[in-house]
Amino acid sequence: MATKEEDLSMYRNIGIIAHIDAGKTTTSEAILYRTGLKHKIDLVKGDTGGATTDWMEQEKERGITITSAAVTAHWKGHKINIIDTPGHIDFTAEVERSLRVLDGAVVVFDGKMGVEAQSETVWRQADKYGVPRICFVNKINQIGGDFYKSLDSIRKRLSKNAFAIHLPIGFEKDICGVVDLLDMKAYTYKEYADHELTVGEIPADMLDKAKQYRSMLVEEAVQADEELMNKFFEEGEEAISVDELKRALRKRVIDGQFYLVTGGDGRGVIVEKVLDLVADFLPAPTDIPAILGKNPKTGEDIVRHSDANEPLTALAFKIATDPFVGKLIFVRVYSGKLAAGSYILNATTGNKERVGRLVRMFADKREDIQEIGAGDIAAVVGLKDTTTGTTLCDPAHPIHLESIEFPEPPVSIAVEPKSKADQEKMGIGLGKLAEEDPTFKVHTDEETGQTIISGMGELHLDIIIDRLKREFNVECNTGEPQVAYRETIRGTAEGHGFHKKQSGGRGQYGDVWVKFEPNEPGKGFEFIDQIKGGVVPQEYRKPTMEGIEETLTGGVIAGYPVLDVKATLYDGSYHDVDSSELAFHLAGVLATREGIKKANPVLLEPVMKIEITTPEDFMGDVIGDLNSRRGRIDEMEDRENGIKIIKGFVPLANMFGYTSDLRGMSQGRAASTMELHGYEEVPPNIANEIIEKRNSK
Length: 697
Known about the structure:
- This protein is of the alpha+beta class.
- The chain is 28% helix and 32% strand.
- The chain contains 16 helices and 38 strands.
């Protein structure tokens, strides 16, 4: 049943986020089936590969979600925009950009594993954007599935403020429903694919446990409201009505830092209870704080509310290439209305753009609409210069929202087309893929002329090559994966840049003294102007800075970008006639080359945070192998059934092909996840080898 378009309190913009293989796409499928968008349920693995939100060929083949698919559904008068995001660490940017525009999220956990490494990563990302969440413990119907152990791991590893709102009835294969702690009723089914839940009394053997968990819930809920708390202490738990309990819990969930937990078989009818939680407890666009932006011209703060009558403010959070309509730009409207055929301002470029068409997405299907208002999500066709993180707004009321920042990709490979005919197609294909994915970069190596592509991991680049072949019909050869090394300095030194040329007529003259020192990690390049008395005129200081920055980008010891350097321009001289911007630019280059070489430059390498899950039998081999890869173990913990968790850090350079090596040494029973931890200094002997190899090219 559709809801009134203008009733924002009935909108929900939610994401479904999880560790890889927790079953979130299956849960999404069940939600679509229950809300009437699908007439049958497709299982993701070992089935026909027909998951609606996994619409790319690679997703169907690999059983993983790569792009976040936007789907609109309706439930009990609520309009729910659902974004199903990837769980694999290589596609973490997809999760990041989706969370930025969501109002709430359902976090899915594997009931056999509890909280896993990537569960923690997506949880931290949701914390970063202040996204209220509810938790769904999936797969508790499978062997080893345990709701209570999973709830315990959520409370230990993520937040002690996680409380059950439903308790499962049955255990493992006998799971057949839940006890709802709000109305103290049992909701059961005979088969997971039943069309509706049967409401009845709580099984006698669960009554005490249900009362105990409900008391905990009520005690937490009343903290949202002083009046309710007084009522609770004076008259007891029985005096709190179901409606009062709901309102109080909703306030706590929306305030953040409080999480309701349910569980079940994510394929089936039980997801109706998850949908009820989404409708009852996750925020509407009207519940979230007003969005803050800046006036692009004056830099003044501007506040925009979720109101269709305010000027248009929207954020482009995803770009996809659709085989039928071309470039689709997914947007979240924060205020005002976005209409098909209207002209809008791209606040990033300062140019006006025309909205060609507006489409409501149902994963790979679409429906044309005339306009969307505040609080809604849809896709736009026809925008030329819009990229991920672009603010779109009313030309008469410009606003710039904070953009979305993504990590630099640490893995690179060289690609070359197999034939001349593929050359142009490869360039177009890579350009479109880079437009879609801000963590995928393309550049040409100036020395070798090779095309280099960079991504977040081997799987990420595999998928890119695969998409080039399927979507753009480009056959290409690839080189070995390369690590994105960086350089920095450990000491302080001065560099003198003196550029003088006399060749008849006007000459060139630039003279600068620059002090180089380490900056705080992560702070990047910082330029400080300490010129006194005009020994270097104002107009030559910026070109000097640009010369320094350009040299740092190209590296000094091995050609890799230099990170976290503070450069202070403190002295120099100029010539009335011969000095020019170019001369000082070149002087900046010379000062940098000299100064960095004297400031104890070192090579840095990307280090990955790794978590390995392995049966105890293979633990010795796994640890030995990790040590041989220069890994260091941070902690180890025991899980059920002789499973060990090993956490540590290991240089990316030693981890190519690790997934298949790990499978080989554990008879296919161990698994691992990796994410970029940061950059660390390369040991001198290895650094020398890398520098020699790089400089001999």
